[in-house]
What we know:
The chain has 28 helices and 41 strands. By secondary structure, the chain is of the alpha+beta class. Among the domains are: 226-424, Alpha-Beta Complex (Isoleucyl-tRNA Synthetase, domain 2), CATH 3.90.740.10; 607-691, no CATH class; 707-864, Isoleucyl-tRNA Synthetase, Domain 1 (Orthogonal Bundle); 868-928, Ubiquitin-like (UB roll), CATH 3.10.20. The relative contact order is 0.10.
Amino acid sequence: MADKYVPQEIEPRWSVRWEQDDLNRSVVDPDRQKFYAMTMLPYPSGDLHIGHWYAMTPSDARARWLRMRGYNVLFPMGFDAFGLPAENAAIQRGIHPKIWTYRNVENMRIQMRTMGAMFDWEREAVSSDPEYYKWTQWFFLQFYKYGLAYRQKAAVDFCPNCNTTLAREQVWGEDRHCERCGTPVIKKELEQWFFRITKYADELLDHPQDWPERVKAMQTNWVGRSEGAHVTFRTEAGDPITVFTTRPDTLWGATFMVLAPEHPLVEKVTSADQRAAVRSYVDAASRKSEIDRTAEGKEKTGVFTGGYAINPVNQERIPIWVADYVLISYGSGAIMAVPAHDQRDFEFARKYHLPIRIVIQPEGVDDLNPDNMIEAWPGEGVMVNSGQFDGTPAHYSGDGRKNEAVGVVTAWLEEQGIGHGAVNYRLRDWLISRQRYWGAPIPMVYCENCGVVPVPESDLPVLLPEDVDFKPTGESPLRYHEGFLHTTCPACGGPATRETDTMDTFMCSSWYQYRYLSPHYDGGPFDPEEGAYWLPVDQYTGGIEHATMHLMYTRFFTKAMRDCGIFKPTVAVAEAMGRDTVHLFDEPMVALFNQGMILGEPRTGDLIVAEGAFEGGKLNASHITVIDSLENVPGTASLGRVVGEVVSRKELVLNVQTPDGRSVVVDTDESTTFAVPRKGEDATIEDIRYHLEVEKMSKSKGNVVAPDELVAQYGADTVRAYLMFAFRWEQGGPWDSQGIQGVVRWLNDVWALVNAGAPSGAGDDAAERDLRRKVHQAIRKVSDGLETFGFNTAVAALMELKNNLQDAQRAGNVSRAAWDEAVESLLLLMAPFTPFITEELWQRTGHDYSIHNQPWPEYDPEAAAEEEMTLVVQVNGKVRDRIQVPVDISEDDAKRVAQESPAVQRHMNGKPPRKVIYVAQRGMVSIVV
RNA sequence: GCCGAAGUGGCGGAAUGGGCAGACGCACGCGACUCAAAAUCGCGCGGGGUAAAACCCGUGUGGGUUCGACUCCCACCUUCGGCACCA
């Protein structure tokens, strides 16, 4: 009897061996085709989560497969190590962010090594290392030099209780409260640094082909391009008010204008008698948060300024209103209101009894009438009430929103000098300033004489000081660090102060794919020799949650780098290598794939009988018994009792739902006794299970799955394979702690099967052909699965192949040679999924180290082809018989055999066939009578 | 409201370009082994129907195209995700 499969013994042994032998070291080799595979790097939170395994191990399997197919594969890993949690730990627990972060990094490195991933640790990059953030700062300087970075006042979220600025993700809930103390946040104006991502708005709309449609759609939405025209109205005093409109063809229908409350002209156009009303409206609007403005629902509010504007197309005098449904941050902060053809304007006009004029009359329906319209008509029609343009058709063209009237009117506006075609975007520039300590300092200096001065490149990095105080003062601790704050001006040598804000951590993660190439290189952000070979990233994988932030920023970064000339040295080397560099550095990642998320495992709460005394509505329990069904409730006690399912628990208090749907509080104390069958009589309240829904894993919900424990229990191979088998990778789903048994059995079977060796009987030709066929069918399925990220079907095919091998072993009808060939293929096909057990068995079957450097088995369609097939016969579209026939049956024979079938004849009822269809590829005959 | 994705057994899921619905697993049931349990092995496992077959129904709902629809078209429902007064 062969020994047992003990992954705990095998896995550490091979980990050490692979590391010693540099098995996963990837080096530039121009003679081989490169493949840069990358998965999103983790934040060093301290513990590797099952979600990390779910994201990384399938990605690793695919990288391994590509390596076996002959690619020179680079699959690096690192840490996105700047960020808020480190600072929170400092404030809450008094640990320095650096110590906390690096301790976590160290721990996670150890955890990650158990995954068996082919990470090239020589290329590890940690974004909080000075040798990393030096270059993050360098990028800032380059962007500044090329006009892509600028400084401006902007509002940030601020918690008045914690006295600190908050990042977006720290603001929670509809009422926008502080994540830590629950106080509603307020807005605060601060001078901040921005990157001009809007300059790339159009280019960002043009996505790499191999990106998911979902991500493309989200980014397109985010950029929010809309085409139309800028038209300049004038106030009666002659001040220009430029508006953006997508419908210049409705200009003649403008019956009023609306300014955003923050619009600079509000004060000036307001008449004396309206001043008080306007001021109070503007004040009220400024006190409301964005959410308040929208949370009030659809009801629009506004106030008349008393001022008038002149419509440049017909010289009409129209009133100017102020309303907060017009946003200062979009377009010009002013609109022309065309209530007949815009729903928002329509609602506003109805509420304040403003005139409505039809200028697009729809065809084929009753004419619109301003008096009885109940909604705006944004659709197609013919221009009316529009002077010389009356009769101009306004129909949407096939390719988008624009109608022909827009083009005609826009041309005329340009001719008249009152407007011009324009494009507007929803996208805003990227605010990168953070009033935070644990990030890369922005390398800028403020001098009284010279103003804003960049730190010279030779002075980088601007080091983050370590001796700082973490009192929540509302500003970065850097502001109070005298040694950091005070410096000399690089231009004039006079006294100056440093910028104390640090950079958004999305900056660090915008270029890490480049730093991986040469994490210790000091001649630039990355070594051009490496870049010229490996770039760009061929396959990027990660969570969908980064669709609009990280993935837009990293695309912007690459384009900005290109325009700053940062790729020039790389291009030169690449061209010398013979690579085509046209558009090579326009995008950071050629292909993208998003995996889903593992959710918590649902379970029902324990059914309990709680006995004790009622006090008000709550039961003070003296004894609690867990029961298996409501049918065997134990004998009645004289005391009060509650029977039902435990829905939740908070410390010593249980919430119990009774069968009639009532919710009862059951309180316990040290004297309460518990009887839990699975634990015995000495159980505690900790042993009572409460109800869990399917929801995101979190410590507070008590539904997290710890990969370390799973690895200790089952081994990494099992955890890897289970994560790949149990879910559609792109979808994810709730964890199922029972399902892993299937994978446990599979690997145990493979272990036993391979160790047992070939069956002793003589080979049977047909059986051997059969086995070989199964092998080649598996090669195809597994390869297909890996290609398309269908890891679950790939593992299913491997399980099936194991079943086939078991059958052959039991039948004992294949020769040793045929058996060995099949086993060898099985191990090779499994290697990307379960690297440890396959390496071990590869060695035990007498093969040369390492299985991971072997070529991927070649698929032979002839070997995979079936000799027989099941001919499916349908009569009037319903399957009536299945007949075994040779694969190469002729069409005539197939049709004849089908019609001879008794079952088929029965259903033909003696009627002649009207039509007989033969589908050779599917082995099917369809008879119509 | 707009944009996008998805609805298949008790559960996770499979089904190449319209062609045998439910691969592979989990759970469950019955049997074997065992003093017993676990592990393991064998059989069964969408619903109805039958002694067994035959047969009928079945991929969110309702229509349509087709010899044939999980797959294509139209309308709708539900769930999830993104954006949201964007002029």
